[in-house]
Design a protein that fits this description.
Layout: H1 2-27, H2 29-37, H3 42-45, E1 58-60, E2 69-72, E3 85-86, E4 88-93, H4 101-104, E5 116-118, E6 124-126, E7 144-149, H5 162-176, E8 180-181, E9 184-186, E10 195-197, H6 215-233
Parallel strand pairs: 2-6, 3-9, 4-7, 4-10, 5-7
Antiparallel strand pairs: 1-2, 5-6, 8-9
This protein binds zinc ion.
Zinc ion (ZN) is lined by residues 92, 198, 206, 208.
Length: 234
Amino acid sequence: MKPLFFWTLAIIFASAQPARSQTSATQSPTPAATAVSRPASPQFSGSQPTAGPAPAATPRKPVYPKAVRGWNVPLGQRDRKAGSVINRFIIHHTTNTGDESPYFMRNNERSSCPTWYVTSNGEVIEFIDPVKRPSSTGAANDYSVAVETQNTSRAPLWGISDESHEAIAQIAAWLSMQSHLGPYKVDIKLDRTHIIGHNEAGVNKTVCPGPSMRLDWIVARAKQIVAEQQARSH
Ligand SMILES: [Zn+2]
């Protein structure tokens, strides 16, 4: 009797073990699955901004040929007013010496996102499709494309690198050679009426793009780039 009793217990115990571990195996994914689906619930969207339900930026081919990459960002991809003419290239600085890409890739609290972001080493990243309205310069967005530039130092100089200046001049040169972007007419001449700083756009009181941004140099260099390209193609 006694050995049989222990044998029976052993069988019960052995058969109970897989059942128990199976239970814990099916139970443990449940809290994890709940945690994953939680941020998708509107209830949590306000309290968990970093893990929130905001759609992520997805890669796309940039329109500007010299951009190293393009993104579909989860804000600011609004259409321009019908009949808008794109006639201003508006230049900003980020006031940040760090990489601002992660900020522009998310639905940030200022709903701020430029057409292009130029890093201090001269890389151009396209955020808002140039056909669409940037989210940079308030009332001027409908008729402009905008660049945000990484600073190399903070106040008071708000440094801008030579590489950034060159990259912005290259964009200006390209823009001046476009007659249309999508359905919109482009009229960006290489002068200081069409190529301006944020503080010259007449929409906000600001010192942006700061004292180190050489707008006259950018216009002069863009003219040189266009002249060189025309010389090559003839
Ligand atoms: Zn600005």
